[in-house]
Design brief:
The structure is a homotrimer of 338-residue chains.
Chain A lengths: L2 E2 H8 L2 E3 L5 E2 L1 E2 L9 E4 L8 H4 L4 E4 L10 E4 L3 H9 L17 E2 L4 E2 L4 E2 L4 E2 L4 E2 L4 E2 L4 E2 L4 E2 L4 E2 L4 E2 L3 E3 L4 E2 L4 E2 L6 E4 L2 E4 L6 E3 L4 E2 L4 E2 L7 E3 L4 E2 L4 E2 L4 E2 L4 E2 L4 E2 L4 E2 L4 E2 L4 E2 L4 E2 L3 E3 L4 E2 L7 E4 L5 E2 H11 L2 H16 L1
Parallel strand pairs in A: 4-5, 5-6, 6-7, 8-11, 9-12, 10-13, 11-14, 12-15, 13-16, 14-17, 15-18, 16-19, 17-20, 18-23, 19-24, 20-25, 23-26, 24-27, 25-28, 26-29, 27-30, 28-31, 29-32, 30-33, 31-34, 32-35, 33-36, 34-37, 36-38
Antiparallel strand pairs in A: 1-3, 2-7, 21-22
Chain lengths: 338, 338, 338
């Protein structure tokens, strides 16, 4: 990859201070960058590195433009500029636009134009792959499932029957979409399985990380709306709904029938119990347990802060005495006030 | 699917109030149901919807029968009735009862009658599949492993060597059974692997969700007894034992050699440390850490309740001062009493 | 497997008290062992079992040698002795040293000597497998990725492009290495994907459990150093670095750009937020959240201890009042001191 700063400035609609003929070969952080590389400053904690970086150019906010010792691409949102320019340097292997001889494709499946299906993939009966779909090696698309235009499914993904995925989505390896929701009735101590009759409906421009599990609905569909981004190892139970552009970091678990609003950010390892509603714009900090509905936008937390274990043990022991301590405190106040 | 209310009443052994010739095409919640659909009332929070639902019939407890404006199927346990009737409407594609040409099956494997093996599956040496087994696309059954009668293994499941799975089990996609337990001895700072010589023994009527990991035992077998139900992304370490009919929700992690009793319910995200024993009938709430054995049936918890982050920060800071607060409280009490 | 005590003593460089011609057929715990089996005593909680065990021999520390009623193999570190002897009894099926006819191997891939590639595996363009590599059924090695000498990759593993794995590593089933890091910039409420241009660099003698996810770096590589051991279902985000011989138990999640030192032990279910540094020799207890850098070796914790739920509810309610309680306590102290 080689592209001039002038071409990058045009692509980003950025103002360029410096030589437009400089050739850029790659991207790097300020501290790692070498000559021929482009960097960016988005987090002011790294501002001092503007002086020391070896980068040939930096994407910066207008306020930092004067501090660059190399070429500067000036944008109000340098991080967004970095995101956009990253696509010019993508290393992801190009789709083959062909169907590998070892793939197994049902005669009743409908395959669009320019579809790529890698080795050992399986497309089951009545599945539909729209134009430009890419299916990775070893992935399975189940009966009646539909994958939208230009969606890329990486390797060893398992998509059950009656799953719908929209356009321009990315599904990373090992993810399972449409397995049975965890529904059982108890009959004299034994569990009776509730057949999971719904499907999964995933919108457009959704990205799902690796080794996630998104269960099918019990009667209606589990639903993930347009623009949602999910990191790795996330569990979405049956009948969950996730609103547009909500972001969820790795290892979150959302229990059945919970509705998460739009534009929420759920940090890593968060658990959300079932049958709750989270308003648009809810933010939950790492490893919190959301144990009741959130009706007001804002940040929510549970847990305790980290300590040295020997200090923590004392606090943890006292935690169990908290109710007793509160009552004694009240008794003293009464005593003093009398 | 089309079945009359009369047929459903017979199947459920339910009393029917209404027209037995009414045809039912599907199941839905009270709020979603349309004419031609059957619903149920199990959670009294939804009782008001008996008035407004468009369902053609509802499975209800005798106490609510009079409140239905449509046909009623009367059962003491409506939720169990719903579970049973769900199997009449199942959308899961039928097993093929055939072996796909692309599957790779060792000559030394023993394959029963009416077995289905989907595309790209692999059955390794000396594996045994009993009558009626269904193996999904891309799944691997390792050397010497045995799958019991009518058990269904979904797509891309990895079963290592010397694993035994009983009859009428379900294993969802992406699950790994029999990977090495995490056993290492330390030799001058470096880890020396302990070969994991045991297997995994899974009973009958066990359901295992998607992307779980159930490790093989160090010397004897990891053991999951009859009727256990596991949700997705659950980690079962080496030598764990789980008693009959215990239910475990998503993202639980059970460390090595812990023994969990029968009829326990472990909520989502719970961690259980190693070498513990949990008595029959232990119940653990979501995201708790079980840090010592449970010797008495009942409910157990750890963690803190959710707050707004700015409130939570104050509590978390004070948590670290708890021991100091407790000592000061005691000093005041002494002071006052003197 | 049959081997004499004399041969085992020589292999372990252990002193043998007993008959060197005794034949050993397997390993077992003290309580499970039968005649013909070898056991060990590493945890003094089981010391009483020296009297009752049916084992034919026991690996013990010199201090316990006199208490054995059977043959004794004497070593300063009996657990390490057990680890070493376990390799003599390994049940893992031997590698085939052949390439299965159903495997799909790019013409541009470079395959070393004595490589085993199982059924349905896929080796993509320009991938390199060094001598002695074993690739399990259904696994995929992506473009340009390199697997070092004698490394074993189990079934259904997904390795993306530009991933490097060192020599003598083990990667368990279902693990995904090199999926995109979770990087997005926000443009007016919508997420713009940041292409993940780095790779993953894994050292030598690394073991990675089942269904883990190790993301590729944003611009440079995610890095796991020599001798690291990871259990199952672990999430390693982009640009994380893990130092030599660090051990991490199941279900840990490490957020982006965090650097973990060497010889750390991270217990199960721990979360570590992004952009932190953990010093060499940090130890974190189960399910803790590491919310700031650790600059001093030692043990760290967060969370609360387990209680009965009805007791816990009171503590959890009081936790929210902690700041108020602390202020009232201070007011009383002031009151008393005046």
């Amino acid at each position: 990859m080689a592209i001039t700063l002038g071409e990058i400035a045009t692509y980003l609609q950025a103002k360029l201070i410096g030589d437009e003929t400089t050739v850029i070969h790659g991207l790097a952080t300020l501290s790692d960058a070498q000559a021929g590389q482009l960097s960016f400053l988005a987090n002011m904690a790294y501002k001092d590195q503007l002086q020391s970086t070896l980068a040939s150019a930096i994407i910066v906010h207008p306020k930092q433009a004067a501090e660059c010792r190399c070429a500067a691409l000036i944008l109000d949102n340098p991080y967004l500029g970095y995101a956009k320019v990253s696509s010019l340097f993508d290393t992801l292997p190009k789709a083959s636009h062909s169907i590998h001889a070892s793939a197994v494709i049902s005669e009743s499946a409908r395959i669009g134009k320019d579809v790529s299906i890698a080795a050992q993939a399986v497309i089951e009966d009545h599945a539909v792959l729209a134009d430009g779909v890419v299916i990775g090696a070893g992935s399975v698309v189940g009966h009646n499932s539909r994958i939208g235009r230009d969606t890329r499914v990486h390797q060893n993904v398992s998509i059950y029957h009656d799953v719908t995925i929209g356009d321009h989505c990315i599904v990373h390896s090992g993810t399972v979409i449409g397995a049975d929701g965890f529904g059982f009735a108890n009959e004299q101590g034994k569990w009776v399985k509730i057949r999971q009759l719904g499907g999964v409906a995933i919108g457009n421009r959704v990205e799902i990380g690796a080794n996630c599990t998104i269960d099918r609905g019990a009667m209606s569909d589990t639903r993930i709306d347009d623009g949602v981004i999910l990191d790795n190892l996330i569990q979405i139970a049956h009948n969950v709904q996730i609103g547009e552009n909500t972001a969820m970091a790795a290892c979150c678990k959302v229990a059945g029938s919970t509705k998460i609003g739009a534009n929420c950010t759920i940090s890593g390892g968060v658990g959300i119990i079932g049958h709750l509603t989270l308003v648009d714009g809810a933010h939950v900090t790492a490893m919190s347990l959301v144990s009741k509905s959130i009706t007001e936008a804002g940040a929510y937390s549970s847990g305790t802060a980290m300590s040295k274990t020997r200090e923590w043990r004392k606090s943890a022991a006292r935690f169990r005495q908290l109710d007793d301590m509160a009552k004694r405190l009240k008794a003293i106040e009464k005593n003093i006030n009398n």
